[in-house]
Amino acid sequence: MHQYLRAAFWILVYLALVLTPLFVLLIGPRPLAGGFWVDLSLALGFAGTAMMAVMFLLTARFQRATAPFGIDLIYYFHRLASIGAFIFILLHPLLLVVRDPALLGAMHPAVMPWHLWAGTVSFAALAALMITSLWRKQLRIHYDEWRVAHMLLAVAALVLAVAHIAGVAHYSALSWKSGLWLLIALSCGATIVYVRLVKPLQMLRRPWRVVEVIEERGSSWTLVVRPERHAGFRFLPGQFAWLTLWSSPFAMKEHPFSISSSAEAVREVQFTIKELGDFTSRIGRVKPGTRVYLDGPYGTFSIDLSRAPGYVFIAGGVGIAPVMSMLRTLVDRGDRRPLQLFYAYHTWERLTFREELAQLKEQLDLEIVYVLSEPPPDWQGETGYLSEEIFARHLPADRAARECFICGPTPMIRVAERGLARQGVPPTHIHSELFDLV
């Protein structure tokens, strides 16, 4: 209940931040009535700009604000809210032009006033931001380059939007109303300073060192890191952290990875990383002694936040990493609650943590159901891809009482969520960890 109350509080804070500028503008003298469509257009523009400003706070990783939801859900909401803000801002000029097509004449570059230039360039920056974010992979934009461009485009879009509002001075002619939008812009600037200067400086003072690099099956590697001249941090089993490797924490080159070690091992943290992209393809070349920086822990994907008489884990590929953190923690705690793991992979030979999982079966009350899409000739287990039929054959009788944790590729997560629900698992007992944050 405490978690739900915290979530409700932060939802109300978000709504207040988005709606307050809109209602404050109605205080005091109002301009001559422009009609319903003009007022609707202005309201959409104000709301869209306020939503743009709040985006800076959503991605600032304030742990108290993100804790009730999980930062993966926050980033997913950020994406959806950004689309909503873009639609609002797009409708702002369209409604005016549909009402009065003669306004198009004022958009000619030779006669366009500066505040319309500001609004036009702001919209162009926002459109570029949306295109490069939603289709980054299709456009083959490197992740690190995209992050820098994303921040610059966001700042430009917001600053120019505020300039546009001040220049038009419709509902914001009073100095204190213009000051409100200036305060909003300065607050976003302060957030950037905190995220890109203050927090990296804090990380710089709390470095970590790689003490071991372990080769795993399936082109995966486990980095074992320990704090250098500080106590490290406590984390919940299943959480993740942003890892900065080969760079300064000021370089905006951190990457999120799940922690795979036990939460009881407080003096070291392990990350199991699969060779998949530009950054991770070099992970096996990391040398012991390399200095790294961590920002974390984050996430609500943890058994410690979901008490239950037993658990069901569903992992695909390297999605086994946070599950291993939870299983290892349960071993260290001597926990004997019943556990079940569905682990989907391509081949038996490349199955990550295959040997350790066999040992964990001896240390825990653990049943493992392997699902192989490319099984060996003598394979007797489940084949193909994870499906509702596989769940129907193996889920325990008390499935409705168990908490279920899913981590893996997005298509697998969707299949697992649907299959568990159809097998009688309540939606509140299904927890998913999203890989693709951007």
TrEMBL record:
Protein name: Oxidoreductase
Pfam families: FAD_binding_8, Ferric_reduct, NAD_binding_1
Domain annotation FAD-binding FR-type: ranges: 203-304
GO molecular function, one term: oxidoreductase activity
Subcellular location: Membrane
Lineage: Bacteria, Pseudomonadati, Thermodesulfobacteriota, Desulfuromonadia, Desulfuromonadales
Membrane topology: Multi-pass membrane protein
Primary site of residence: membrane
GO annotation, cellular component aspect: membrane
Key words, A-Z: Membrane, Transmembrane, Transmembrane helix
Residues spanning the membrane: 7-28, 40-61, 73-94, 114-136, 148-173, 179-198
InterPro entries: FAD-bd_8, FAD-bd_FR_type, Fe3_Rdtase_TM_dom, FNR_nucleotide-bd, MRET, OxRdtase_FAD/NAD-bd, Riboflavin_synthase-like_b-brl
Record carries keyword Glycosyltransferase: no
